[in-house]
Design goal:
This protein is α/β, with parallel strands linked by helices. Helices cover 35% and strands 26% of the residues. The chain has two domains: 7-219, P-loop containing nucleotide triphosphate hydrolases (Rossmann fold, 3-Layer(aba) Sandwich), CATH 3.40.50; 229-299, Alpha-Beta Plaits (2-Layer Sandwich). The chain has helices spanning 45-52, 74-78, 96-106, 111-124, 140-151, 170-185, 197-203, 221-226, 243-250, 277-287, 302-310, 320-327, and strands at residues 7-16, 19-29, 34-38, 60-65, 68-69, 81-84, 158-162, 189-194, 206-211, 214-219, 231-237, 260-262, 267-272, 292-298. Strand 12 (260-262) and strand 13 (267-272) form a beta hairpin.
Length: 328
């Protein structure tokens, strides 16, 4: 049986003057799943979300949501999506209840239906006690929950979430994770952009790593971790200042990327092809008089995958996308 992808992007390119934000990106998201779009700042994630939300016309290529072209059929796309961006798009002068009901009216719900659904959303997101307070009195986490709730009032089959948990405290982040998982169980397709590797690992059935405007790799979290082709060896030094010397001593044991140094914790981490490398690592460090307090060999993390593919951490300071935003 052939099913239409919930989201389909084919050769999508987006330029802002001389800045290339998306460079022929291809993506396919299966209906009823959470798809994680993982990438550093400047990779093009937000640009893609804006195109899928019909807020930006692609320079080239095409994109569809539930079979509807984002350029040729923007109204049909808007009727089928919900959007929550990096910053809560709420009216501070209205109450929480009024914000949600207003969005319901924009979805052309009747007044009674908008009120009913708003009450359900306020209950679901734990905002009943503050529903009739002005949003200007809300905390950042409350505003984010309100924004996500408002995006759901139209019961969209596809939800676009652009780094929805950025800046939230751990408890609120966990609550939003639970909500996203519940939405998927209810049949909603979620496209989630994130820099939090744990978030993608926990929520997404499939993940695409985006870098320089293209998909560098895609698959399940397990498939991406297996693609590293080895295990992660972490060594903690007794003296944090010894970490650079330890990294130099272990460099030839690394399979692929050179060892990474965490100077704050005095740790060195590297991918090794041979599990016996841990014993060799201890021998080398002992020979150099570098005491070790802990050594661990484990499966690679998404962090290891990310660095292997992009050469930089997920929270690296943006260059290309910052320029793209300025140009837009």
């Amino acid at each position: 049986m052939i099913t239409t992808p919930a989201v389909l992007a084919e050769g999508v390119r987006q330029t802002f003057g001389d800045v290339v934000a998306l460079d022929g990106l291809d993506l396919e998201v299966e209906a009823g799943t959470v798809f994680g779009l993982l990438g550093p700042n400047g990779a093009g994630k937000t640009t893609l979300v804006r195109i899928l939300a019909t807020l930006l016309r692609p320079t080239a290529g095409r994109a569809r949501v539930l079979g509807h072209d984002v350029v040729a059929e923007p109204l049909a796309v808007r009727r089928r999506i919900g959007l929550a961006g990096q910053f809560a798009a709420v009216d501070e002068e209205l109450t929480g209840r009024e914000n949600i009901e207003m969005v319901g009216m924009l979805y052309r719900l009747s007044g009674a239906e908008a009120r009913t659904r708003a009450a359900e959303i306020l209950e679901r997101f734990g905002l009943v006690d503050v529903a009739d307070r002005r949003v200007s009195t809300y905390s950042g986490g409350m505003r984010r929950r309100l924004d996500l709730g408002a995006s759901l009032i139209g019961r969209p089959p596809v939800l676009l979430l652009d780094e929805p948990t950025t800046g939230l405290d751990p408890r609120t982040r966990q609550e939003l994770w639970s909500t996203i998982a519940e939405l998927r169980c209810g049949g909603t397709t979620v496209l989630l952009t994130t820099q939090y590797l744990e978030e993608a690992d926990r929520l997404a059935q499939r993940i695409a790593v985006v870098d320089h405007g293209r998909v560098a790799a895609k698959g399940t979290a397990a498939q991406l971790k297996a693609s590293i082709g080895g295990n992660a060896l972490t060594v903690r030094l007794a003296d944090r200042g010894d970490a650079p010397d330890a990294a130099a001593a272990l460099a030839t044991l690394a399979a692929g990327e050179r060892p990474r140094v965490n100077a704050t914790d005095g740790e060195v981490r590297l991918i090794v092809a041979d599990p016996a490398a841990s014993a060799e690592a201890l021998r080398r460090l002992d020979a150099r008089g570098l005491p070790v307090t802990a050594i661990e060999l484990q499966q690679p993390s998404l962090d290891d995958v990310f660095l292997a593919l992009t050469g930089r951490p997920a929270d690296d300071e943006p260059t290309r996308e910052r320029l793209a935003r300025d140009a837009a």
